[in-house]
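Deliverable D2.4 — example input (structure tokens):
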């Protein structure tokens, strides 16, 4: 007959047969193996989280450096703009800044479409008469 063992539990003892005890031991071993696997996964995740944190720190540092470089460039451009624009127009310097000049103006309530009549073909012609030097300057400006 199977030997019966006693295992103390909390307030009393319970008797287990050898088969039950073997089954419980197998279950305990499985649980221990799962705990070990989970601990490994937690360790791996902690490494990933640390690496991700370091990567984000590097990106933030790179952004800060880039922003400082951009600020320096903007300051240099502002000084150059101040030199080019007459002093009486310095209160409008923002209009002459490269960053602001490269964006479209904001929409206003008075903005509207110009609808052309059907069959209308615009004529090609010069709007303003320009000298050869002025035309070359305009062409160069349009290329930029």
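Example output (designed residues):
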């Amino acid at each position: 007959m199977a030997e019966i063992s006693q295992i103390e539990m909390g307030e009393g003892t319970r008797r287990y047969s050898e088969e039950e005890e073997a089954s419980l031991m197998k279950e305990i071993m499985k649980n221990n193996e799962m705990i070990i696997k989970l601990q490994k996964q937690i360790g791996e995740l902690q490494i990933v989280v640390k690496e991700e944190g370091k990567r984000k720190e590097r990106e933030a540092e790179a952004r800060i450096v880039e922003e400082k470089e951009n600020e320096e460039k903007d300051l240099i451009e502002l000084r150059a703009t101040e030199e080019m624009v007459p002093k009486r127009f310095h209160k409008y310097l923002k209009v002459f800044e490269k960053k602001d000049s490269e964006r479209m103006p904001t929409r206003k309530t008075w903005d509207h479409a110009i609808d052309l009549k059907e069959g209308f073909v615009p004529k090609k012609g010069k709007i303003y008469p320009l000298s050869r030097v002025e035309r070359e300057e305009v062409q160069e400006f349009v290329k930029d």
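The beta strands are 4-9, 12-17.
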